[in-house]
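Workshop exercise sheet. Pairs work together: one partner reads the sequence aloud, the other fills in the structure field after running the prediction. Swap roles for the next sheet.
Pair: D.N. / O.F.
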Amino acid sequence: MQHWIAPSILSADFAKLGEEIGAVLDAGADIIHFDVMDNHYVPNLTIGPLVLQSLRSSGIDCYMDVHLMVKPVDRLIGDFVEAGADLISIHPESTEHLHRTLSLIRDGGAKAGIVFNPATSLSALEQAIKLVDLVLIMSVNPGFGGQAFIPSSLAKLKQARQRIDESGRDIRLEIDGGIKADNIADAARAGADTFVAGSAIFGSDDYAATIKTMRRALDETLAI
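Structure field:
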């Protein structure tokens, strides 16, 4: 499966968000990671569906990977589908009925993802794996950008990769939190194929050079 680099706009300059997205796409990013926080499920407040709708209206037509860190979550799913989300990922803890929530996403026409925090077991994946197109492993505790990578996340990545492979389904495996040029290869070797990077890209002086360095590390991993 092709490796995807997914800059998280949580670390972008919100005063010129459209320009920032255009810049990282021009610099070689594959998709955009759209973090939504509610100051309830996580201790931060970010953006909602109107921002995504505005970006779509302005002509931004890239793949939008929407990560909902909100509780309760069902009420917002339809709004994000209508706003233009290509994929919507949710946390098992954010819903009382995981099957129903994932079905809401898929029935709306978007792809569905399930997210596991560092301390959350993969047990829910057994019931959800037939309903998901992406599994996201958090390598930091969600809520803030710029956190340090939690090394034990690599073991969880390997476990998730094994379960995905055993399912026989075409499911992407994403890693989010503290991903940089010096650890992206480790995540790839553990089984990830989609890499969310916020501050590592948006905090750099040269988006293209940073993404190129990450891509080189991934290519070298594939060559081994």
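Discussion prompt: The chain has nine helices and eight strands. What would you look at next?
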